[in-house]
Every structure is written in structure tokens, then in C-alpha cells.
Specification:
Number of helices: 8
Distance between the termini: 82 Å
Largest sheet: none
Structural class: mainly alpha
Order of helices and strands: HHHHHHHH
Shape: elongated
Length: 196
């Protein structure tokens, strides 16, 4: 009967999958192929969207509606990431891992790029992957756990006003009424103005 034949095909495929599995197999791709083979043996059509990183990132870039200079910057970041992951850029976007993304970010920071440039580059890659997730090409954004540090996050801590600064603020209030409100506001709320 047909149900028994189907069950036998699934059992045979399950045995092949078990034989193919080796200790230390790392990779979602192996297990996705195994599940796909099992589903196929059971006569179930997998509705999985497939696309390569190069195809997806090209599509993502073509959909950007922003200044040309911004698109050029995005393209540079996409190309940088594609070179970093090498031949896998032509493989399934699903095979790109968190480790790849973290490695890319660290390579930018250790490769002479400023913190803010590395942050901006990674933000672009993150946005591209997030859009792929929303379209159903990936289940999880591999960049989501990459800890990024922007230049503003690493800026030095602002110290409170010194006694001399407070005296200078109060002296300036009598000399220039134009700045009176701004200075009082800054003084009472502990704000600083950074010029230049």
C-alpha cells in the first residue's frame, strides 16, 4: 500500500542521513539538507525560499531609494563582506553564520578602519540580513548578536562642572544677556556645549 511505501522511503532516507552524519558536523546546512531529503522521501514539498548572498545583497541594493553616495557606500560595505566570506558568498544566504559576521566586524576594527566606519559598515550588513529575514530567506539574522561599539559609545565620560567653570558661567551671565537662558539651562541640567 502507498502509506507503507512512503513510510519505508522515509525510514530508508533516515538511515542514509544517520550514516552520513559524522561526529562534529557543524552546520545548519547539513541538517537542512537532511530534513529536506526526509520531507522529499515523505512526498512533502518543502516551501523554503533559497537565495545566495550575492543575489540577495544585489537585490537589496537595487531596492535602496536614497542618495547615490549612500548607495555607493552600501555597495562598498556589501563588497567588503562578500570578499570576507569568499566563495560562500555564492552559496545559500542561510549558510552564513554569526561567527562569519562577528569575524567580519572584528577584521574591520583590527584592519585599520575607524570604530565609526566599522560600526557603519556592520550596520549596513545587519540591515541587509534583517531585510532577508523579513522576506523569509533566513530565519535568524546572523548579525543580531554581534556586539558593535559605535564611536559615540566609546567617547569619554563627561565630568561635572568644576568650581572655576561654575564661576565663569555666572560671570558671563552679567556680561551677555543673549546667552543667559542657555547658560542657566546648561548649568542647572549639567549640560555641556561642545564647540568644534
Amino acid at each position: 500500500t502507498e502509506p507503507l511505501k512512503k513510510a519505508q522511503r522515509v525510514a530508508d532516507e533516515l538511515e542514509r542521513v544517520a550514516n552520513d552524519a559524522a561526529p562534529g558536523i557543524d552546520g545548519r546546512a547539513f541538517y537542512e539538507r537532511a530534513v529536506s531529503r526526509l520531507m522529499s522521501a515523505a512526498g512533502i514539498v518543502a516551501d523554503e525560499k533559497k537565495i545566495t548572498w550575492l543575489n540577495w545583497s544585489g537585490r537589496w541594493l537595487s531596492e535602496r531609494r536614497t542618495l547615490e553616495a549612500t548607495v555607493v557606500n552600501y555597495r562598498r560595505n556589501i563588497d567588503r563582506f562578500s570578499r570576507f566570506i569568499g566563495a560562500r558568498a555564492s552559496g545559500s544566504i542561510r549558510e552564513i553564520t554569526h561567527s562569519d559576521c562577528a569575524g567580519f566586524y572584528n577584521s574591520l576594527r583590527n584592519g585599520g578602519l575607524s570604530e565609526s566606519s566599522a560600526f557603519d559598515s556592520m550596520r549596513c550588513i545587519r540591515a541587509c540580513f534583517e531585510r532577508a529575514r523579513l522576506h523569509g530567506f533566513i530565519d535568524l539574522n546572523p548579525t543580531s548578536l554581534v556586539e558593535m561599539k559605535s564611536a559615540t559609545m566609546s567617547a569619554r565620560r563627561k565630568e561635572p562642572f568644576t568650581r572655576n567653570e561654575i564661576q565663569a558661567i555666572f560671570k558671563s551671565l552679567t556680561k551677555n544677556d543673549e546667552w543667559r537662558t542657555a547658560c542657566l539651562f546648561g548649568f542647572y541640567y549639567g549640560l555641556r556645549v561642545q564647540i568644534g
